[in-house]
Design brief:
The chain is built from 25 helices and 31 strands. It has about 850 residues and is an alpha+beta fold. The strands form eight sheets. The protein has an eight-stranded mixed β-sheet with strand order 6-5-9-3-2-12-15-14, with no helix packed on it. A five-stranded mixed β-sheet has the order 17-18-19-21-20, with helices on one face. It has a four-stranded antiparallel β-sheet with strand order 10-11-16-13, with no helix packed on it. The structure holds phenylalanine and zinc ion (ZN). Zinc ion (ZN) binds next to helix 3.
C-alpha cells in the first residue's frame, strides 16, 4: 500500500499527544515470513493533549485482532495507521499483528540480515513493527518477550528470564519507540565489565557472528574509554547493568543508539589491524563514543519531535568530536572536522538541499539526517561554548541534565539552560537554528598611527525558501602577529552581531598580520584577501595551529586556481613554505601531513564557483595532478628523507602517534610515487603487515595507472572479508582515470561479489563513482545515466539509501549547460519512475527545485 499524496509535516503544527503510554508489553514470535507481534499497551489521556482522536501509527502491518480492556474492537485502518473509539480514562490496548521480516529489504523496522533478526526504529520504523503512537514525545516502559529458535535473543534494558527458545527483557527507563531494539541470531560475544563512578558493575558485550570475534577488542576498549570520558568530562555515568553492542552487515546508516542495545553497521565496529586502516580505527572509536554518549544526550533527554533532531545529534557529535580531540589531539581533529564540514555541509548549504539546522518542515524525516543537522548542529554547540566560556558551558549542561532528564525537549529548552546558567541573551544566537546557508565574512583592515582597524562584514546568501537573511551572532576569534611572526595580540573573541563591525587595536609598533577565525571559531566562509607573504608568515608562525594550517591551505588553493585558470606552475614561495613545514620536526607528523595534502578537486570547484566561474572537472583533475607533480619534483629529496624516518617500527598499533607517522609517510609516498614509477609503493605493498600500509600502497599504485596485479592479489587475499572487499570495490573506482571511471564502475556492478542489496557494497561502488568528480561528470553523461539506472533499481527495495545517494546530483547548478541538461534528464527519469518512494520523490523534487 502506498500513500498517494505524501504529506508535508510542519514544526509549527506540533500538537501534544492526546494519550500517553505508561507501559508496553511486546511478545515476538519470530519467523522469517510471518512474525507475530502481540502488544499490550497501557494508555492514559494526556491532560495537556490537544489531539481529540485516538490514533496509532502503523505501516505494512497485518492486524489479526485488537482489544480495548479485553473487549474486541474493529479499528478503522488506513495505509499509515488506525483510529478507534476509546474510553474516557486510562485503558489497555492489545493488538496482534503479523509482519514479514525476510521481505523487509528497506532495513527499517524488523528485518533480517545474514540470517539474523534485527531492528531499526529511528526515526519512524517502530510503526512497521506494531501499531503505536510512534513519536518521540511518547515515552513508555518496555517489557519484551522474544520467542524464536535462535541462540541469542536480545532487547533493551535488563534480561529478566530466559529458557530454551525464549527470553524476556525489561527496560526500566521510559523511552520513545524509536529507541526500541530487538536482535536474534547465532551470535557470540566479546565480553568485558566496567564499574561506574556510581559503583555500578556493568556487563559489556559486543555481539558478532562467530568469525568476527577477533575484531572486537578495539571497539570494547573504545567503549570503556567513552564511559570513562563521559563520567569525567560531563559527569554522566551509565545507568543499566548491561550494555550490548551488535554488529550487522546490512544497515542503512552508521550505527544506532537504542537503549542498552546499540546496533552497528559492522563497518563501524569491527576492527583489526590487518583489515582496518588507521582511519577506520579512529572512525570506529568515534562512532562507538557517539552512540554511547547518546545514552544521555538522546536517550535520557530525547527530542520532543523530529524537528529537534539536532538537539541530540548536534550535541552528541560535538561530544564525540571533543572526545576524539582529547584522545588524539585537538589541532588535527579540528582541521579534520573543518574539512568534513566544508566538504559536506557547506556544499549542502550552497545548493538546492540547503535547510536550517532545525528544519521547519519535511516530507520524509529520514531525508534530514544530514551534514547540516549533525555537523553544523555540532558547530552551534561549539559556538555556544565559545560564547559562554568553559565554566558557563559546564553550568549550562549541568542545568540541562538536571532540568530535562526524562523529558522530550526542544531547542528552546536547550538555549534557555544557557541563558539561565550564564545570564546570556541568546535571542539572536537562536537564529543559527532557523536560518540556512553558510555566512560569509569579508575581512578588510587598515593601519593608521599605530592603530589597527579590523572590519568584518557578514552576509548569508539566499537559500531555498529563505531569500532574505538577518545578521547572526558570530564568535570570531582573532589574534595579531607582528611582521616577524611573533604574536602581538593574543586570541580575542570578537562577537559579531551586526552586518558590519569594526574592531580597534591600539598601540601597535607596525602593521600587524591578522589571524582571523582562529580554531575555526564559527562555521563560516572567510573572504580575506591576504598577500602570499602574509600567509607565508602565518604558515610559519601562527600560534593557532588551525590558522597555521589554513594559511597553507589558502596558499595551496591559490596555486591550484592559478594552475586551473592559466596552467601556471606553483609559486616557489609556496613550495618553500611546504618544504619548511615538511621538515619541521617540532610539528606533529599528522599535522604536517594535513598541510601537505592539497585541497581536493571538489574544493577547487567550490572556490571557482564562489568566484563566479564554471568548473571544468577534467581540467581541474589534470591541473591538480600537475601541481602534485611539481610539488613532488621540488620536494623530492626532503620527502625521501621523511618517508624513511616516518616508518613505524615494530608491530602495528592504532594509537594516534603511530597513525600520525603513517599518515605522513603515506602522504609523502603518494608524491614520491609520481616520480619513482611506483617502486617504493610496490615494495610497501609487498611488505605490508597491516591494512593501512597495504591499502595506501595500492592507492598510490592505482593513482599512477599501475597496480592491476596488486589489485588482483588484494582480491584473492581478501575475498572472504566483506568490509575489506568494500574497499577493493571503492578504491579502484576512486583512483581510476576519469575517462575510465564509469566503465570501471559499470563493470564492477557485474562482478559476482557485487551484492547491490547490501548498502555498504552499493555505496562502495556508487559513492566512489559520485565522489570522483572528473569521472562522474564525464561530458557525455554516462556517469549520470549509470547512477540513475541503479537508483531506479534500488528504490523499491531500499528507499532510504536511494534517497541519500540522489544527493550526488545536488551540485547540478554549478556545472555548464550541457552537464546540467544531462543531470536534469537523469533526475527527471528517476522522478518519473512509477511508484517511486516518498524518500526519493522528496529528494529529487528538492534538487530539481
Ligand atoms: N541516530 C543515529 C546516530 O546518529 C543515526 C541513525 C539515524 C541510525 C536513523 C539509523 C537510522 O547515531
Ligand atoms: Zn547520533
Amino acid at each position: 500500500m502506498k500513500d498517494s499524496a505524501p504529506q508535508t509535516v510542519y514544526l509549527a503544527d506540533y500538537a501534544a499527544p492526546g494519550w500517553l503510554v505508561d507501559s508496553v508489553h511486546l511478545t515476538f514470535r519470530l519467523d522469517p515470513e510471518t512474525t507475530r507481534v502481540v502488544s499490550r499497551i497501557a494508555f492514559r489521556p494526556n491532560p495537556e493533549g490537544t489531539q481529540d482522536r485516538f490514533y496509532l501509527d502503523g505501516e505494512n502491518l497485518k492486524l489479526i485482532g485488537a482489544t480495548i480492556d479485553g473487549q474486541p474492537v474493529t479499528p478503522e485502518i488506513t495505509a499509515t495507521g488506525l483510529t478507534c473509539p476509546v474510553p474516557d480514562g486510562p485503558f489497555v490496548w492489545e493488538a496482534d499483528v503479523e509482519i514479514a521480516p525476510a521481505a523487509n529489504t528497506a532495513l527499517d523496522g524488523l528485518y533480517m540480515s545474514g540470517g539474523m533478526y534485527c531492528t531499526q526504529c529511528e526515526a519512524e520504523g517502530f510503526r512497521k513493527i506494531t501499531y503505536y503512537p510512534d513519536r518521540p514525545d511518547v515515552m513508555g516502559i518496555f517489557s519484551v518477550r522474544i520467542e524464536g529458535d535462535m541462540p541469542v535473543l536480545l532487547s533493551n534494558g535488563n534480561p529478566v528470564a530466559s529458557g530454551d527458545g525464549w527470553a524476556e527483557w525489561h527496560d526500566p527507563w521510559p523511552k520513545p519507540a524509536y529507541l526500541f531494539a530487538l536482535v536474534a541470531g547465532d551470535l557470540v560475544a566479546h565480553s568485558d565489565r566496567f564499574t561506574t563512578t556510581e559503583g555500578r558493575d556493568v556487563a559489556l558485550n559486543i555481539w558478532v557472528r562467530p568469525g568476527d570475534l577477533d575484531k572486537c577488542a578495539f571497539g570494547m576498549a573504545a567503549l570503556k574509554a567513552s564511559m570513562v570520558w563521559d563520567e569525567q568530562v560531563y559527569g554522566r555515568a551509565y545507568d543499566l547493568d548491561l550494555f550490548n553492542i551488535v554488529a550487522v552487515d546490512d544497515f542503512n546508516m552508521g550505527a544506532m543508539e537504542n537503549k542498552g542495545l546499540n546496533i552497528f553497521n559492522s563497518s563501524c565496529v569491527l576492527a583489526k589491524s590487518d583489515t582496518s586502516t588507521d582511519a577506520d580505527f579512529e572512525r570506529i572509536e568515534a562512532i562507538i563514543a557517539h552512540e554511547y554518549f547518546h545514552n544521555w544526550t538522546g536517550n535520557r533527554i530525547t527530542c520532543r519531535d523530529w524537528f529537534q533532531l539536532c538537539l541530540k545529534e548536534g550535541l552528541t557529535v560535538f561530544r564525540d568530536q571533543t572526545f576524539t580531540g582529547d584522545l588524539r589531539g585537538h589541532a588535527v581533529k579540528r582541521i579534520d572536522d573543518a574539512l568534513t564540514l566544508r566538504a559536506r555541509q557547506f556544499r549542502e548549504d550552497a545548493g538546492p538541499l540547503a535547510h536550517p539546522v532545525r528544519p521547519a518542515s519535511f516530507v520524509e524525516i529520514n531525508n534530514f539526517y544530514t551534514a547540516t543537522v549533525y555537523e553544523k548542529g555540532a558547530e552551534l554547540v561549539g559556538m555556544l561554548k565559545r560564547l559562554v566560556g568553559d565554566d558557563g558551558y559546564r553550568a549550562a549542561l549541568t542545568l540541562y541534565f538536571d532540568r530535562h532528564d526524562g523529558q522530550a525537549a526542544t531547542i528552546e529548552d536547550w538555549l534557555q539552560c544557557f541563558t539561565d546558567a550564564t545570564g546570556r541573551d541568546l535571542t539572536q544566537f537562536a537564529l543559527w537554528y532557523a536560518q540556512a546557508g553558510t555566512p560569509q565574512i569579508t575581512v578588510t583592515d587598515d593601519f593608521v598611527d599605530g592603530t589597527y582597524h579590523l572590519t568584518l562584514a557578514q552576509m548569508t546568501p539566499p537559500t531555498p525558501g529563505q531569500p532574505d537573511k538577518q545578521p547572526l551572532h558570530i564568535p570570531v576569534a582573532v589574534g595579531l602577529l607582528a611582521p616577524d611572526g611573533s604574536e602581538v595580540v593574543p586570541t580575542r573573541m570578537l562577537e559579531m552581531t551586526q552586518a558590519r563591525q569594526t574592531y580597534t587595536f591600539a598601540d601597535l609598533a607596525a602593521r600587524p598580520i591578522p589571524s582571523v577565525l582562529r580554531d575555526f571559531s564559527a562555521p563560516v566562509i572567510l573572504n580575506h584577501t591576504q598577500s602570499a607573504a602574509d600567509r607565508g608568515v602565518l604558515l610559519a608562525h601562527d600560534s593557532d595551529p588551525f590558522n597555521r594550517w589554513e594559511a597553507g591551505r589558502m596558499l595551496a588553493r591559490d596555486v591550484l586556481l592559478a594552475a586551473v585558470r592559466d596552467g601556471k606552475a606553483p609559486d616557489p614561495a609556496y613550495l618553500d613554505g611546504l618544504r619548511a613545514t615538511l621538515t619541521d620536526d617540532q610539528l606533529h607528523p599528522a599535522f604536517r601531513a594535513r598541510i601537505l595534502a592539497l585541497p581536493s578537486e571538489q574544493d577547487v570547484a567550490d572556490a571557482l564557483v564562489r568566484a563566479g566561474e564554471t568548473p571544468d572537472p577534467e581540467r581541474i583533475h589534470s591541473a591538480r595532478r600537475q601541481v602534485r607533480q611539481a610539488i613532488a619534483t621540488a620536494l623530492d629529496a626532503q620527502m625521501d628523507a621523511v618517508f624513511a624516518t616516518m616508518q613505524v617500527p615494530g608491530p602495528y598499533d592504532p594509537r594516534a602517534e603511530d597513525a600520525g607517522r603513517r599518515t605522513l609517510s603515506n602522504t609523502v609516498l603518494s608524491y614520491l610515487t609520481l616520480l619513482d614509477a611506483g617502486h617504493r609503493a610496490a615494495a610497501q605493498y609487498e611488505g605490508a603487515d597491516n591494512m593501512t600500509q597495504q591499502i595506501a600502497a595500492l592507492d598510490c599504485l592505482l593513482d599512477i595507472g599501475a597496480g592491476q596485479e596488486a589489485l588482483a592479489a588484494f582480491r584473492a587475499q581478501w575475498q572472504g572479508d566483506r568490509l575489506v572487499m568494500d574497499k577493493w570495490f571503492g578504491l579502484q573506482i576512486a583512483r581510476s582515470d576519469p575517462a575510465e571511471t564509469v566503465t570501471r564502475a559499470e563493470s564492477l556492478t557485474r562482478d559476482p561479489a557485487f551484492d547491490w542489496k547490501n548498502p555498504n557494497r552499493f555505496r562502495s561502488v556508487f559513492g566512489a563513482l559520485a565522489g570522483h568528480m572528473a569521472g562522474f561528470h564525464r561530458q557525455d553523461g554516462a556517469g549520470y545515466d549509470l547512477l540513475a539506472d541503479w537508483l531506479i533499481k534500488l528504490d523499491p527495495l531500499n528507499p532510504q539509501t536511494t534517497a541519500r545517494m540522489v544527493t550526488a546530483f545536488d551540485a547540478m547548478a554549478r556545472y555548464d549547460a550541457t552537464r546540467q541538461e544531462l543531470m536534469r534528464a537523469a533526475l527527471t527519469r528517476i522522478a518519473r519512475t512509477p511508484n517511486l518512494s516518498r524518500d526519493t520523490t522528496e529528494m529529487v523534487a528538492r534538487i530539481l527545485g
